[in-house]
User: Fold this.
Amino acid sequence: MPNTNHPDYPEEYILGRVQFFSKDFIITPDVLIPRLETECLVRKARNIARTIPECSLIDIGTGSWIIGVSCADIESIRSIEFSDISPDALAVAEKNARNLIARKDLSLTFSLGNLLENYTLHGKTLPKTPLIITANLPYIKQDDWEHMSPDTKFEPELALFGWKTTWFELYDILFEQLKNIKHSEDIFLIIEFWYDQTDIARKTIEKIGWKYEIFPDYAGIERFASIHIPPQ
Ligand SMILES: C[S@@+](CC[C@H](N)C(=O)[O-])C[C@H]1O[C@@H](n2cnc3c(N)ncnc32)[C@H](O)[C@@H]1O
Assistant:
């Protein structure tokens, strides 16, 4: 059990609530505390959705589901899938979805899974509409406590740490899945990473040949990419 009296123990976990994109989300120690910068990803997803008459959204690594919920009022989005590898995180996501989404015409699904494996290995088929995929996957260097604030050690490691070499590996796997998946409509993939992974993101996406844009957070640091994957 964590020491909730520790001076670094996050207030958000004590209060059980956090504000994100003007909404009040339930939060527990099973999920990452949403960071303000992730709003930049949400804004991009909302803007893309507004340009498409009808689309679906898959939020991979959904955590407390802040990204999906913050896009749910855009009417062109007809379905949202919330997906995470952590069953505990999904339980929180489901509560937030039910509390905060008023639309009755929006189809909501919650799926346990490793990135897009439900589609690449387990026979699920992608929606037959243009698709927006959002992902804020773990990207911190393993045990890089020196560059992390002390309260971070109370957050789930599964939500923080990337793999072992570039810490961009989860995105490498996701890109590989998307290169091989059959889809008849455009896919717009929007991802968040750390400032020291911008070059790696650029090089990897350019090598694949997808059109993309890198965009900044509120401090001007370029650590998001919006990628267009044409039908294949
Ligand atoms: C950095 S947190 C982001 C949570 C939330 N989307 C946000 O922006 O605040 C990363 C999330 O990815 C999930 N995750 C980690 N590895 C995953 C994988 N291989 N497949 C799917 N989800 C994964 C974690 O459980 C965690 O909820």
